[in-house]
Amino acid sequence: MTAILESYWQSYLWSDGPHFSGLVVTLWLLILAVAMGFLLAVPLSMARVSHNPLLRLPIWCYTYVFRGTPLYIQLLFFYTGVYSLHVVRSQDFLNAFFRDGFNCTVLAFGLNTCAYMTEIFAGAIRATAHGEVEAASAYGMSRFTLYRRIILPSALRRALPFFSNEVILMLHSTSVAFTATVPDLLKIARDVNSATYASFTAFGIAGVLYAACAFFLIWLFRRGELHWLAYLKPRTH
Amino acid sequence: MLLEGFGPQILLGTLATVKLALCSLLIAVLAGLIGASSKLSSNRLLRALAAGYTTVIRSMPDLVIMLLLFFSLQMLLNRITDWLGITQIDIDPFLAGVVTLAFIYGAYFTETFRGAFQAVPAGQIEAARAYGMTRGETFRKVLFPQMLRHALPGIGNNWQVLIKSTALVSIIGLTDVVKATQDAGKGSMQFFYFTLVGGLIYLAITTVSNGVLLWLERRYSVGVRKAAL
């Protein structure tokens, strides 16, 4: 165990020499996917709760498909499926984009987590107290101002516990990235496994690192909830 | 033809996936019931064991646990067969898949059932004991049916996640629907089309399970009044 740690700790944590690898790549994937998911999910969740079926139904369809199929299939779809199309290969930009496993992985992860986040935010928006919305309309706010000042600030706060859950699930989901040749934490663990045959240690180290990240994220989100959700705490007096 | 002759292969893969998911579900539910009973027991050692199990499993990715168990179990078995001096036994990938998935999702079911057991009012159990029911009868006739109503939404969620997790078993060498569709893609050089087919099969499975879950929830909520909003 100490021998493996001594010779591979650097690959596990951040670099296998010429390239970044291991934990750093896993976290970078997580940050990119969550950022992309969040930025897309906020407008999509607004469309998801819209009264207009032309806005609502396509978003429903998107979340239904992405939440109803495994992330691994979605990754395979973008990595092997899309790239096998002649149309994609004949265009320089698309060809360059889909040839890189990292791009496909971020795209698949981002779209996947965005589908879950859209439903989470849409649920929170629907749970907004109707009196707040009426009061805002009475003040003469436009729909945009209504969303910006009233609905989104409270809905995003109330969604925070579910959002943190989704981020932890995404951290765990990043482990399929190695199937698209991304040198993430699990790829290093597999390499160490095939180099040393010490399966339990090789995968155990990766597992402990994943768990440590999960606990750190949970701690971080608890702090955030204490700060942003303080007004929802049960009153004690 | 629609599936270019790969139809039977894909059908077999789909059956393997469904069989794997159902077998794992069954064992995981049993593990969850045992885990929840340990978590709620008065024995401190059992409680600590169950807490360790759920914390460790739920903090690591499924795939890591899968690979860890798959390789380590085989090596452990090899060591035992070496020691006994018999020929090497290869673990069947299907069995390995069921065991690892059940072990992982047992932890999630433990938490689901723990919450559901705690949601049954203590007065129900006291009343059952007052009627002279034994512990077993109390569990079977009072605690379990009421617990199930609270547990069903959680069971449904876990099932949906479990179904999607089965896609990962092709990585440890099982011929499931993912492997079958990827092989078909390789054989026909139509990866795009066959990956779509794989996705649609999963979508069909989750859609059917949604319907079944809705029916079950209605069935077990008979006599429960919803607050009229």
Automatic annotation (TrEMBL), chain A:
GO terms for biological process: amino acid transport. One of its GO terms (cellular component) is ATP-binding cassette (ABC) transporter complex. Keywords: Amino-acid transport, Cell inner membrane, Cell membrane, Membrane, Transmembrane, Transmembrane helix, Transport. GO terms for molecular function: transmembrane transporter activity. Residues 23-218 form the ABC transmembrane type-1 domain. The chain crosses the membrane at residues 20-42, 200-221. It is found in: Cell inner membrane; Cell membrane. CDD domains: TM_PBP2. It comes from the Bacteria. It is a multi-pass membrane protein. The HisPMQJ complex is composed of two ATP-binding proteins (HisP), two transmembrane proteins (HisM and HisQ) and a solute-binding protein (HisJ). The HisPMQ-ArgT complex is composed of two ATP-binding proteins (HisP), two transmembrane proteins (HisM and HisQ) and a solute-binding protein (ArgT). Belongs to the binding-protein-dependent transport system permease family. HisMQ subfamily. This is Histidine/lysine/arginine/ornithine transport system permease protein HisM. It comes from Pseudomonas laurylsulfatiphila. The lineage of its organism: Bacteria, Pseudomonadati, Pseudomonadota, Gammaproteobacteria, Pseudomonadales.
Automatic annotation (TrEMBL), chain B:
One of its GO terms (cellular component) is ATP-binding cassette (ABC) transporter complex. GO terms for molecular function: transmembrane transporter activity. It comes from the Bacteria. One of its GO terms (biological process) is amino acid transport. It is a multi-pass membrane protein. Its main location: membrane. Residues 14-213 form the ABC transmembrane type-1 domain. Keywords: Amino-acid transport, Cell inner membrane, Cell membrane, Membrane, Transmembrane, Transmembrane helix, Transport. The chain crosses the membrane at residues 12-36, 56-77, 89-108, 191-216. Pfam families: BPD_transp_1. CDD domains: TM_PBP2 (cd06261). InterPro entries: AA_ABC_transptr_permease_3TM, ABC_transp_permease_HisMQ, MetI-like, MetI-like_sf. It is found in: Cell inner membrane; Cell membrane. The HisPMQJ complex is composed of two ATP-binding proteins (HisP), two transmembrane proteins (HisM and HisQ) and a solute-binding protein (HisJ). The HisPMQ-ArgT complex is composed of two ATP-binding proteins (HisP), two transmembrane proteins (HisM and HisQ) and a solute-binding protein (ArgT). NCBIfam families: HEQRo_perm_3TM (TIGR01726), PRK15135.1 (NF011714). This is Histidine/lysine/arginine/ornithine transport system permease protein HisQ. The lineage of its organism: Bacteria, Pseudomonadati, Pseudomonadota, Gammaproteobacteria, Pseudomonadales.
